[in-house]
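Let us practice reading a record.
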Amino acid sequence: MKKDNLYLLTLLAISLIVFIIGYFAMSYMLNESTSQILAIQIESSKREAKELAGLISTQLDNGIDRQIVINNFQKNIEGTNLETGFVCMLDWSGVEICHPDPQKIGKKNNPDVSYTRALDSEINPGEFYDLISNKKQKSDPSIGNTNSPIIYLYPVKNSDWIMAAHANLDKIEEQLKGLKVNFLLIYLLSSSVISLLALLMVRFLGSYYEKALELKNEKLAEEVISLSKLNSDLYFLKNQLNKKNEKEDKGDEGDDNNKIKNRLLTYSKDKLISVRVDEIAFVNTENSLTTITCLDGQKHSSTSSLDELISSLDPSYFFRANRQFIISVKGIYEIFRYGNNQLKIKLNPASSKTIVISKNKVSEFKKWLNY
């Protein structure tokens, strides 16, 4: 259950990040796409106005009657006002000569209706977008339809006519809305897919590491069991040695090996002290000085080396842990796992240095505890 909650929180966190980043990315791309569409629309309207103005100017230069030119042009542009952009022809006073809607012919353009620009000036995409955004606010039935303003003017040579490029704001706005809807759908779909894929990747990686962790835990559990067994063997060995000591104190048993000593001769300052072997916790050497530490914490010095001492100590009591320490089974407080296949010994009384059984001696140490 906790794992499911974790995955749910992970999904929510990833989704939140993806949706926030995706929203700003979508907004940026939508603005850029809108600017490109409007720029293309402006350029297309300019090119169409220039080409048609050039065509009409050529016809006039060839001596074609003005009225015939007007009639032909009118036939060609009728009904084009339903597209995103269209052209019409005005005279210099602003009266419509040709228009896709024949009812507007002969009428004068109201300056409030059209976004008329000077001949040497052009509308940019930013102004165009503001024009589309604010068209409803500027709409006024008393001055006519404001949804098809003039965005570009180009004169017809050798005449008093002007070619006017109009923008159908309703059609362009519909196109931009469709673009926005498409971007929104792509944003929602891609963000959802990315979030789900991220969650699946998290679950995959999580399951991979969970398996690795389970194997590690199993290995650790085996090591814990092994350590528990070692500490149990230690406890059992201490009891056995205590019983052995009791029997020896009563004289029931004797040791036939003369090399094994029951006491060690030590000194403290200028005094010679005899220490019972079963009272020793550990023996260590440092800077060529051998120190014997008893179970009660008292320390004594010895002139013998560790090699000499280990040969005269009962192997059922003492173990050579390393070059610096001989440890007594009674001095071992607890055994811990240490590093890679090594053991750390905690003594009582505690030693100032860490006592580590190397992996080469671990097997021998375990065998000693099982003595």
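A brief commentary: Residues 263-369 form a domain with the OB fold (Dihydrolipoamide Acetyltransferase, E2P) fold (CATH 2.40.50.40).
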